[in-house]
Amino acid sequence: MSATILFLGPLRDLAGEAEREVSAPLDWEALLDTVGPDIAAQIKDERVNVACKGKVLADKRTLLAEDGDEVALLPPVSGG
Asked: Per CATH, the architecture of 2-74 is what?
């Protein structure tokens, strides 16, 4: 059983990959452990959203990704 973490924007550069297959189920604490300390520090920021099953979570700490789910890490959008 696995889930896919999608790294978007600058998080992709920091991760060095666009996506990563991980064991499922995946909750918030497991996500933080899986992505490593640099990305974990970034995604704890309130401006970074987490989406699961195509929906942005109102509270990312409630994450529970199951087999086949995608978890997208969505950094704030900048630009003009």
From this structure: Roll (3.10)
The residues spanned by each domain of the chain are 2-74
Q: What is the pLDDT of residue 78?
A: 62
pTM: predicted TM-score of the whole model, two decimal places:
0.93
* pLDDT tens, residue by residue, 24-58: 999 999 999 999 999 999 999 999 999 999 999 99
Three state DSSP letters for the chain: CEEEEEECCHHHHHHCCCEEEEECCEEHHHHHHHHCHHHHHHHCCCCCEEEECCEECCCHHHCEECCCCEEEEECCCCCC
| Phi/psi of residue 9, nearest 5 degrees | 60, -140
Whether residue 9 contacts residue 75, with contact meaning beta carbons closer than 8 Å, is answered with yes
At 58 the pLDDT is 97
